[in-house]
Amino acid sequence: MVLERSGTIFMRNIKLTIRYDGTAYVGWQRQKNGVSVQEAVEKTLRKIIGEKICLIGAGRTDSGVHARGQVANFKTASHLAPERIKRALNSRLPEDIAVSAVEEAGTDFHAQFSALGKRYRYTILNSDAKDPFVRRFAYYCPQSLDLSEMRKAARHLVGKHDLKALQNSGSVRKDTVRMIRKIAIEKNGPLVYIDIEAAGFLYNMARNIVGTLIEVGRGKMPAVRVKEILSGKDRRYCGPTAPARGLCLIKVIY
After folding, report:
1. 2 falls in which pLDDT band (50, 70, 90)?
2. What is the pLDDT of residues 85-142, one digit of tens each?
């Protein structure tokens, strides 16, 4: 058990790994216009621990975006064992949120600032027929997709680039240079998976990358155009923002 002193109280730092279906939520971060995942977990923790809890998340996920590996941490004076916290959370949280791990963390661990990167997966249902069993977690695209051309386009994105063209308006970030470590595109039956790993993500960057790659796959845009989009730094020339339901935060890298 790692403790830090706060006044005369010793505080523990607890790390959570959280999975959720984001369909019914306004995103991870607490907002005024609806219920967030953060709010739902904080309220449940408050009932279990008996303290006001402030969860620090690894990053925001937008309304409708899912997670298999969201990470958060909080400080507490509680002596409850991690496994007991996990059992109590999973017995009380809504059915669309689950905690896969609860661990003691070092006093300097910060879910957001300690992160070295994130991996997202976007799922596309590429079929001539809809599938009601994946409709909440995949974007339905009935048009044929040329995965070879999509991979060619993706190669232009890997590396360190100014990704201003792939950031939606409304972001307050001035520094738009990011390192994309990997983009992998695979097909399993009717499902196409686009995995994007980067040191950091801009607002709607992952969904804008996917929307652009889909345009390439449908033959609406040549693969080399992606290189021109990056140098032009103009959002208007890349593809549309892919729907939130296909995006899932797979892992936060520490």
Report:
1. low
2. 999 999 999 999 999 999 999 999 999 999 999 999 999 999 999 999 999 999 999 9
Per CATH, the number for 3-105 is 3.30.70.580
Hey, what CATH topology would domain 117-253 get? Alpha-Beta Plaits (3.30.70)
141-170 residue pLDDT tens? 999 999 999 999 999 999 999 999 999 876
Domain ranges for the chain: 3-105, 117-253
DSSP-assigned letters across all residues of 26-71: SBSS-BTTB--HHHHHHHHHHHHHSS----EESS--BTT-EEEEEE
Reduce the DSSP state of residue 152 to 3 states and report it: helix
Q: Would you say the CATH fold of 117-253 matches that of 3-105?
A: yes
Three-class DSSP category at 237? helix
Angle between helices 205-217 and 225-232 (to 10 degrees): 150
Burial 2-34 (b: 16+ CB within 10 A, else e): eeeeeeeeebbbbbbbbbbbbebbbbbbbeeee
What pLDDT sits at residue 32? 87
Q: Are 109 and 73 in contact (CB under 8 A)?
A: yes
* Residues taking part in catalysis: 62
pTM of the model: 0.93
Q: What is the pLDDT of residue 7?
A: 55
**CA 185 centroid distance within chain:** 17
- The structure tokens 């990056």 sit at 230
